[in-house]
Design a protein that fits this description.
By secondary structure, the chain is α+β, with helices and mostly antiparallel strands. The chain has 5 helices and 9 strands. The protein has a 9-stranded antiparallel sheet. The chain is globular, with a radius of gyration of 16 Å. Pfam families: Polyketide_cyc.
Length: 199
Amino acid sequence: MERERSILFPRGALAVLAGATLVGTTLLGPDALAGGSAPPDIRVIEVKGSDTPKVVAKGVIDQPPEKVWQVVSECASYKKRMPRIEASRLVKQEGNKHTCEVTIAMPFPLSNLTAVTEAVHEVSDQGMSRRWKLLRGDYKFNQGSWEVKPHDGGKKSLVVYTVHAEPNTALPGWIREAAQKKAIPELFERVGEEAAKMK
């Protein structure tokens, strides 16, 4: 059973920074999304049996789904396309399963966080999804997804980013606050900028 919490809940910010592979944050209604690009709607949701909530962000990116998908699906390019990524590589690919190793850059004096995850990619006319789970790394758990669907006749993308992650090492309050206010909006903005470069 999951229950939604206020966006001000600090552990949600911890999950955002720890799980991010990447304008103030505002909560948007359906009418706001229909208008085009906008800051993402961010929800922090309690997860039964876990002290760390799940974070779900939804927003419209002013680029076609195919271009957005190139950015979020190619983990080997996360270092150059996503914010706060120190290193990234595709370990192996078997069919639609992609094993990736991604290191998030943390501010001094904290150590960087590395995770090896297995992601399942699904692509159809209705949209694309990338759902990952932790295999090993500097986390107690790390799972989530990117979902990209056509919006406005396919000219834009409705993007949903979900993450439920907790590193092995606790993060200080100022890091959680910075993640909460900046990490996801910055991530969506960067994905949009990188998608605009795709051919």
